[in-house]
Design a protein that fits this description.
The longest helix is centred in the last third of the chain and has 32 residues. The protein is elongated, with a radius of gyration of 23 Å. By secondary structure, the chain is an alpha+beta fold. The strands form 5 sheets. A 7-stranded antiparallel beta sheet has the order 11-19-18-17-16-13-12. The protein contains 7 helices and 19 strands. Helix content is 19%, strand content 30%. It has 2 domains: 109 residues, Rieske Iron-sulfur Protein (3-layer Sandwich), CATH 2.102.10.10; 215 residues, Alpha-Beta Complex (Naphthalene 1,2-dioxygenase Alpha Subunit, Chain A, domain 1), CATH 3.90.380. This is Rieske 2Fe-2S domain-containing protein. Keywords: 2Fe-2S, Iron, Iron-sulfur, Metal-binding, Oxidoreductase. It holds the Pfam family Rieske.
């Protein structure tokens, strides 16, 4: 029996097979390993040196290898006997050699360019290759493209528009967490959970959370946006009493949309967002505040793990950018990208769905699932 580390001594719920019993959203329900033909962030560039590093992305095992300033990605399996190339050696420039028999592959195209234990005239050299993946570096992150296109679309197509041309300072965190990526994405765009789950978070210690909202979802280009038509700070619950998150030490939060604040960053103002929270394919969340934007990438690892990439961006330069970076390292990284989102990770880990019974605030989830179905994305194949 496996116990849940977040609830000591409590048995983990029995997992249903991914995709089982989900029939209303066939494309989304079958996307347990995510969507192909997209760029995904995997690691910080500084995490990959000369020694190969193993990562799993959309269920595919990949070896990342640095050669100078360039990073290469190869399928992490030597075709000879199936040994991971991430365990390999760097015998010659621009290559990686399998640690078992010295089969040596070109980092750029994956071609077998030599077999060290078969001599310089090995007849199999040049007749075998390992799959390679397109790689880009942006914002200090390594981005890998998983798909079948020989000439993949530009990385910019998979980035929020405000990150393409503007100058900004960034702080971030990336880690692999338990749970399927779809549950993580739905949690991020979920309308109801923050008011209850996060009302104990240190990040919200001095800010009151609403008791409940009336919300609708609007589409803005590639994004779905949660729009709050009504915000209620307390409620008289029939037969129960008053429900409120108000406390004497908490101050009222910002208006229900970033553009309604009195002081707002010009870049964020130009987005003209009707609500704070939005989501887009292939699984990118944007939480826009008046002075900074928090992003989350839900990167599929395998059926039961998700790489959680969190970025906090402030569109500033100079001294203000430096102050924000300091604030991020001393507070935001631990309070927001740590304890706050760890509460989300806890729920994603213990969630046991389907089956499910949805309620009114779950319109955010159904809108996201419907968006996926309409987009007709290419699903990463999953073999049971």
């Amino acid at each position: 029996m496996t116990t849940n580390a977040t609830s000591p001594g409590r048995p983990r719920p029995e997992r249903r097979q991914p995709g089982q019993d989900w029939t209303s959203w066939p494309t989304y329900d079958s996307a347990v390993l995510g969507f192909r033909d997209h760029w995904y962030p995997v690691l910080w560039s500084e995490q990959v040196g000369r020694k190969p590093v193993a990562v799993t992305l959309l269920g595919e095992n990949i070896a990342l290898v640095r050669e100078g300033e360039e990073i290469h990605a190869l399928h992490d399996r030597c075709p000879h006997r199936g040994v991971p190339l991430s365990l390999g050696r760097r015998q010659f420039p621009g290559t990686v050699s399998c640690p078992y028999h010295g089969w040596t592959y070109d980092l750029k195209d994956g071609n077998l360019c030599g077999v060290l234990t078969d001599g310089p005239e090995s007849p199999i050299a040049g007749r075998v290759k390992v799959r390679t993946y397109p790689v880009k570096q942006r914002f200090g992150l390594i981005w890998v493209y998983v798909g079948d296109a020989e000439d993949p679309h530009p990385l910019e197509d998979d980035l929020p528009e405000e990150l393409r041309d503007n100058r900004f300072v960034i702080g971030g965190r990336t880690e692999v967490r338990k749970g399927n990526w779809r549950f993580a994405a739905e949690n991020g765009f979920d309308e109801g959970h923050a008011k209850y789950l996060h009302n104990t978070a240190l990040w919200r210690l001095f800010k009151v959370m609403p008791a409940w909202n009336k919300t609708r979802i609007v589409e803005r280009g590639d994004w779905l946006v949660r729009v709050q038509d009504e915000v209620h700070w307390e409620a008289d619950m029939p037969g129960l009493g008053k429900w409120t998150n108000k406390r004497w030490w908490k101050r009222m939060p910002l208006p229900d949309a970033p553009g309604k604040a009195q002081n707002i960053n010009p870049v964020i103002k130009s987005l003209d967002l009707p609500g704070f929270v939005s989501i887009r394919m292939p699984g990118i969340l944007r939480v826009a505040y008046p002075h900074f934007i928090h992003y989350e990438w839900y990167v599929p690892v395998d059926t039961d793990h998700v790489r959680y990439v969190q970025l906090m961006v402030r569109f500033e330069t100079g001294a203000r950018a430096g102050l924000f970076k300091l604030k991020y390292l001393t507070a935001i990284r631990w309070l927001f990208h740590g304890q706050f989102t760890a509460q989300d990770a806890w729920m994603v880990d213990v969630m046991n769905a389907p089956p499910e019974k949805l309620y009114r605030p779950d319109l955010s989830l159904t809108a996201w699932r419907r968006k996926v179905e309409q987009s007709e994305p290419k699903v990463q194949p999953y073999e049971r």
